[in-house]
Amino acid sequence: MIIAFHTLGCKLNFAETSSLATEAIKRGYTVVDFEDDADIYVINTCTVTAQAEKKCRQTIARAVRRNGRVVVMGCFSQLRPEVIRQIEGVEIILGTNDKEQLFNLLEAPAKTTVEATTKNTLKAVGQNTFTPLYSTTGRTRAFFKIQDGCNNFCTYCAVPYARGRSRSASVADTVRVAEEIAAKGIKEVIFTGVNIGDFGSGNNNGNETLADLIRALLPIDGIERYRISSIEPDLLTEEIIDLVASEKKLMPHFHIPLQSGSNAILRDMKRHYKRELFAEKVNQIHSKIPHAFIAADVIVGFPTETEELFNETYEFLLSLPVSALHVFTYSNRPEALASRITPVNTAVERKRRSEKLHQLSQSKKESFCKKFEGQDVTVLWEGHADKKEKFMFGYTENYLRVKAPFNPEKINTLSIVNCQLSIVNYC
User: Fold this and answer.
1) Beta partners for 115?
2) Which of 215, 221, 222, 225 is nearest to 248 (CA)?
3) Tens digit of pLDDT for each residue in 27-62?
């Protein structure tokens, strides 16, 4: 049987899809690109915004037109099974806790339309059910799922309703999976999860923390680099910052969700910190690791965000040594509490604010890159190249993307290059 997978959304979804593709190969399936002809099309979906859901529906429609068996799974399936049910041609609908049923359902003697458990995620998703897994789409880097779910219930977010409560495996079980990654020759590992700073929750080892996991992973031979990925400011401890500052294997690259630079908006969002804590963490990193790249997530157009409060966010970010912004326009999620608030701004105003923050982000990226002009940097070279294979690409420790003439012998190797702005950008 020929099977094709397509992933929408976050790196956590990519790690899960990759694990399923690996299992498919073990079972004798031939895995092809989603644009190729296949007997089975599997779509792992996202529901973080209304636009993400629109892309899910469009992708499902494309798959249905191919006349193969269509499976839809993931967060969109979890929260909107009734929407998918109305799309003629979808055979199997799986929620976030049902992905392991995929092959049993595909290989059942009788072909039947199936809808697995997709309601009441907070009860349906087992609190102590978690298995670490990783992506294997390339030889160079792996996205390592070390945690799932979230207990925060921010008022703008539907993720806890789609993913369930925070949970993770023990340090020992997580290390065993990391050793599998190392055995494949993969040099860099990126931690992924919904809220990785909450590692230790739901694993029956209540005293274990992300810092404990990091220390246990560092001695593994073969893995040269670890990236912490996105971590909440109130869970980014000084202990973790000090580990990154002192350990060569930990990359100086932080992604810290801010969401708003206004304490009034943070309160309305039910975030677990004030902007002063975010500033404290950023300044700690900058003082201890001056070359670290620090990215921040920001939401514009929250229902109670006035022009004055938006300007607070803008000026706050302008004042901090943040290297880039990931800007998101607020999207109404029916499950989230903020959906009950009447917005104080229009779609046009939200777009204007988004563009203003994107411009600020571009300015900060350029300033950050310029600091490394003429310096020697260490690059891990990726396995993919441009379409004409004239150039290959790699990443520095602080995630500057570097290009060089294509040389297959460099793939999955580390080398020192002199950093010139003509060969660098940031992704």
Assistant:
1) 93
2) 225
3) 999 999 999 999 999 999 999 998 999 999 999 999
CA dihedral 86, 90, 95, 97 (to 10 degrees): 160
CA angle 119, 38, 13 (to 5 degrees): 40
Task: Name the CA dihedral angle for 192, 194, 197, 202, rounded to a multiple of 10 degrees.
Answer: -110
Indicate left, alpha or beta for 193 from its phi (over 0: left) and psi (-120 to 50: alpha): left
Q: What is the pLDDT of residues 79-106, one digit of tens each?
A: 999 999 999 999 999 988 888 889 999 9
Residue with tokens 């949970």: 167
CA-wise closest residue to 178 among 144, 131, 209: 144
Backbone torsions φ then ψ of 31, nearest 5 degrees = -95, 125
pTM, 2 dp: 0.90
In one-letter notation, the amino acid at residue 101 is Q
Backbone angles phi, psi at 381, to 5 degrees: -85, 135
Q: Which amino acid is at 363?
A: S
Between CA 172 and CA 179, with CA 178 as vertex, the angle to 5 degrees is 90
Closest CA to 321 of 254, 271, 376: 254
> For residue 344, which of 359, 356, 330, 355 has the smallest C-alpha distance?
330
d(CA 39, CA 114): 17
Torsion sign (Cα): 49, 51, 57, 58 = negative
